[in-house]
Amino acid sequence: MKLDNFWGIGFNLDKVMNERTKLGFTIDYWFQPGLELGGLSFNNTLEGGGGRILGELNHSFNNKIPIGLYLQAGYKTDGFIEGERLGKGLIARLGLSLRTGQKLKEQAPKN
Q1: Helix (H, G, I), strand (E, B), or coil: what is residue 7?
Q2: SS3 of residue 79 by DSSP
Q3: What integer best gives the mean pLDDT of the chain?
Q4: DSSP class of residue 39?
Q5: 104, 61 in Cβ contact below 8 A?
Q6: Continuous segment of H or E residues that includes residue 59
Q7: What is the largest distance, in Å, between two alpha-carbon atoms of the chain?
Q8: Tally of CB atoms within 10 A around 7
Q9: Can you tell me the distance from the alpha carbon of 52 to that of 62, in angstroms, rounded to the nearest whole number?
Q10: Tens-place pLDDT, residues 32-81
Q11: Residue 6: closest CA among 80, 71, 77, 91
Q12: pLDDT band at 95 (very low <50, low <70, confident <90, very high)
């Protein structure tokens, strides 16, 4: 197995829609050697190219509370990319986000 013939490239675009909503898009492509990884079970991938595509949504509930909703969805082919499973399949993540390092807006009192 020759390990010196691998490379990858990625592109990420973040778009702030408004003060509370941000959209993101990521696409990755790689070429890698065949992998044989073991543990409790063995996973193999063939030499060749692969890719991943992701969409993200991060939405804060309001400007007084720094907590929001995080959604991520996409697809990945066979191959290694950090933080993902080795095999191909759909990607779906749901979570809470926490804004830090930013001053929260004071809401004006209602008259």
Answers
A1: strand
A2: coil
A3: 83
A4: S
A5: no
A6: strand 48-60
A7: 73
A8: 9
A9: 32
A10: 877 776 666 666 677 778 999 999 999 988 777 788 999 999 999 988 88
A11: 80
A12: very high
